[in-house]
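Morning, I've got a small favour to ask if you have a moment. The fold is given in discrete form, as structure tokens running alongside the sequence. I'd be grateful if you could look everything over and explain what you see. No rush at all, and the record is pasted right below.
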Amino acid sequence: MESRVERLPSLTGLRWFAALSVFVCHIAQQGISAGPDVAFGLGHLTSLGSLAVSLFFVLSGYVLTWSARDGDSVKSFWRRRFAKIYPLHFVTFCIAAVIIFGLSEPVLPGGSAWDGMVPNLLLHSWLPDAYIVSGFSTPSWSLSCEMAFYLTFPLWYRLLRGTRASQLWWYAAGLALAVACMPFVARLLPDSAEVVPGMPLRDMWFTYWYPPVRMLEFLLGIVLALIRRQGAWRGPGTGTAALLLGGAFALNQVVPPMFTLTATTVVPIALLIAAVADGDLRGRRTGLRVAVLVRLGAWSYAFYLIHFLIIRYGHRLLGGDQGYARQWDTLAALGITAAALGVTIAASAVPHIFAERPCMTLSRGRRPPQGPAPDFESRPHRAPLERV
């Protein structure tokens, strides 16, 4: 018998580990260690970033579906989502702009500091241009996808909410298969230069950055939450799902680069999210409900947005004008990494407390009166999760 809980805190704790994975990916890409063996080992960690982003997208669909409220409206839903995502993004956008123009440097080698400035206001991942997508606050490209998810969620929810669980299982399988096949579909695009070895620009844009393609993972999260709401979830526990995800990450070390973005990991990611939520609902231990992990998970959006600025420009600060090429021995590199992590965690608390949380509070306003559910919602089923 399920225990009644007000939140699913383990999913919030899981968000922290996803954000930390992105941090590790960008530290590995920054190349601060001079040891060739260490640099080689760090190279194997870069796919943690794409794994984490995929987890965020599936998790977003799951949480929005599970926490849909009775008496809500499309307008109020959009208002809350905008208040959640945009103010903090704008704050970090302004910080990035001050740093970039203050240093008079390009966003990427060979690119202008103006590249991506306007699209970075949440249009950039729609455009197949690496300078634009990675301009200014680099991790924010994913927010273009999230905005597309939020705008279409009421439609998807209305279409899927009455679907029987037996049919939803087929939808879940089809969506996971579609995600896995995207690298093959991308090969139909015109040839383009490689962004990194084995990843042509157009292929990477279509598979990894393009919002309609990433919508598949968001829809998978919606379907999984609907299956669980009907009490029809049958899947592995948290430990088994975590082992499967670890196996998928190991597989990423040998498959072609394009398949490391989403194809190999989407199924274990989906299983892990569903297993973690199911564990909370059944009162089982997940290892993710520890208070510090839940707190860090609540800060994870701010952490995600500011960590790259601290890593990149901290490297510049330590190395001088041409500091991005500077490297340190293994022990010093580990110390710098630990310091960057500590600074990022401390810094992420500030925008969360003074920007993200107040904007979310204002956006909620008065709670809507109880009554018939709006077109995109259904009956109450659980209290809301920690908002993503």
About this structure: Residues 1-6, 367-388 have pLDDT under 50 and may be disordered. DSSP finds 14 helices and two strands in the chain. The longest strand covers residues 194-196.
